[in-house]
Amino acid sequence: LLLLLLLTVVDIPQTLAQTESEVYKTTIVKPGDLQACLDSPQSSNTTIRCMLASGRHHGTYIIPPGKGKRIEIHGQDGTEMDGTVSIPSALWAPTSRSPNIFSASLQGLNVTKVTQIFSEHSMMFEARWPNTNLTRGNMATAVGGPLSLTSWATTDNGTNLTIGKIVDSSLAKTGINWSGALATLNVGFRFYSWTRTVKTMNISDSSFTYEPLCNSTGKVGGRGNYLKEDQGNLYFLSGILDALDSPGEWFYNGTTQELFVWMPDSQHPGDRVRLKTQDFCLIKSTSAPSVTINNVSFFGCAFNLQGCSHCHVTNVSLEAPTHIREIDVRDNISAIPIVATVEGDYNVIEGISARYANGGGIKIVGSHNYVAEGLLEDLAWIPSLDFNPIEIGFGNEQPTYTSALDDTDIMLGGNGNVPKGYNNTITRFTIRRCGEMGIMTSQLANEISYSHVHDFGLIGLDNAGIHADNTFCTCMNWSLPLQQRDNCTKTWHHLWVHDGREKCVRGDDYTLNLTLHHSVIFNCGKGRNGNDRNSVAATGYIIKGEYNRYFANTIFNVSLGAAGEPTQVFLFVVFRSIFTYKMQGGFVCCDFAFSSI
């Protein structure tokens, strides 16, 4: 104890790689005391080192500006940054609805919203139809899990996305009036998702209506022919008490501030129920000093580090880091996206893991960032280009477009989210089980290598395991002098990409200077169970653009199309690009240039 007290007050000189004027201020931090460590006044040459004791460190901690040369936050085994609070056992009372359902008033807990509930560390789900469930430690792709199509309902003939009407013959069989419920919609072009309030429900034709207008795409589901898709769209309904009908579910009445739960074991909640109270446990402002985070686990929250230069995030795990209940991100620009974010240049993120989130895993904004040694799994249950296990090369804000968006707007840069960040590296990652893309990049320069991506695109459509987005960059604006264009040189190599429901690797519209080599790509358009697939859109490798290169790769087992005919092993929409490729059975062709296809 005496040693701990001394450590909290003594300035300890750094002994390696320092000048004589550099000092470390080291503090042992008990749960709840981190902010005091971060706020401690220091001279500009002092590095503040906060050594977190084991236990739950609950709260939103702000790294303030002007506090020393650098901030270091180190954990140990059992250290957890916690974004949840426990609901006291005494608040729970049985209800007349069922002996398994208990309720608690949250009026005295200063709760502003409820988006996520846990039974200790196991996630519970807002009551919904179709039901879903997940046991901690299990894969989200299990039958009934949030990454299984069994947890989504499908639309029938008669659905009209133009007017905002969903028809599903199974809906009336629930026996529930869903008016006022929250509809989560993966419809139309299905590479975005939305939520809308159910306006009316009609039992006679088993349908409901919602507001179809959307500022970004014109209508929920897109525009043009996408709105003609009536069968096979996906949705689920939540947000009403009548949906609470199975273990592991909860419902919150925001008007009365009453929370209802059915515990996974159907027993009294006791003090096991934990309520998510914040999106971020650690926030760094743009003017705060650089930070090191090492050996820390985050539960029920994430970190947001803005204005980083030479920040280090190492040996960090994120469990249930983000949860987004209402989704209309294409209509609203957020300065702080709800995802673990590192913004800035020359940062190192190494030894990171993330698991269990309906949104994204980690977002890297800026240039010359190095991201290595990671495991990202069971993420992006709500399929969207905005929710990715890992994303690089874009700005902080979510993209926003006008309803009149067309190709001309994109080519001119238009109203889109301007890509930001060059020369970023992703290496030695495993990414598995996600609803849409696995790795999402802009067209700006990056390198992806020695990584394994599989079981992707499990819910949405028009996806790929590794994807370069089609948001236009000035590198393809030939009217600009070369020195004024973006650097769009991308090199992807030594990759293993397989078992996706559609495309495996894609450089989308306007792709420039993308080289793919020494990679193995297989089981594209298949899905693990053989039925869960979009075989018509299957492609091993698709590249659309100019000056791209492809060599020393192997692609095989791309699924059969709807008519039983093989779909594309390759799809090239290219100019001035060079390819040497190998298929099952040997080399097909050697070193030639397509003038246009």
Globally, the shape reads globular
Give the mean pLDDT. Answer: 84
As a whole number of angstroms, the C-alpha radius of gyration is 25 Å
Query: How many H/I helical runs?
Result: 3
Strand % is 35-45%
Instruction: Provide the spatial order of strands within the biggest beta sheet.
Output: 5-26-28-30-32-34-36-38-40-43-46
Helix-and-strand structural type: mainly beta
Largest sheet: 11 strands, parallel
Helical proportion?
under 10%
Question: What would your notes on this structure say?
Answer:
3% of the residues lie in helices and 43% in strands. The strands form six sheets. The chain has an eleven-stranded parallel sheet with strand order 5-26-28-30-32-34-36-38-40-43-46. The protein is globular. The model is unreliable at 1-20, 329-335, 398-417 and 581-597 (pLDDT under 50).
Brief characterization of the structure:
With 597 residues, the chain is an all-beta fold. Helices cover 3% and strands 43% of the residues.
